[in-house]
Amino acid sequence: MITFDSVTKRYPDGTVAVDALDLEVPPGKTMVLVGPSGCGKTTSLRMINRLIEPTEGKIFLDGRDIQEANPSALRRGIGYVIQQTGLFPHRTVEDNIATVPLLNGWDKAKARTRARELMELVGLEGSMARRYPHQLSGGQQQRVGVARALAADPPVLLMDEPFSAVDPIVRAALQDELIRLQGELHKTIVMVTHDVEEAIKVGDVVAVFRPGGHLAQVDTPEHLLGAPADDYVEGFIGFDRGIRRLSFFSANGLDLEFDAVLGEDATVDEARRLAQGGSHPWVLVLDAERRPRGWVSAADLAPLPGTGRLGQVPLASVGHTFRPATDSLRVALDATVLSRTERAVAVDSEGAVIGVTSYERLRDAIRAAEQAADAELVQGAAR
Amino acid sequence: MSFFSFAWNWLQSSSQWHGAGGIPIRVLQHLGYTGLSLLVAALIALPAGVLIGHFGRGGFLVVNLANAWRAIPTLGLLILMVSLLGFSVLAWLIPLVVLAIPPILVNAYEGVAAVDRDLKDAARGMGMTDWQVLRKVEIPVALPLIMLGLRTGAIFVVATATIAAEIGLGGLGRYIIDGLATNNYGEVAGGAALVVVLALLIQFAFVGLRRLVVPTPLRAMARADN
Amino acid sequence: MNWPQFWQYTAANALLGIVPAVAGLAISIPVGIACVRWRWLYGPVLSATSIIYAIPSLALFVVLIAYTGLSNLTVIIPLTLFSLCVLVPNVVDGLRSVPEPVRQAATAMGFGTIRRLVQVELPLAVPIVIAGLRVAVVSSISLASVSGLIGVASLGYFFIDGLQRNFNEEIYAAIVAVIVLALACDLILVLARWLLTPWSRKPGGRATANAEGAQLLQEQSA
Question: Which of A90, A97, A103 to mutate to test the interface with C (most CBs of C within 10 A)?
Answer without folding.
Answer: A90
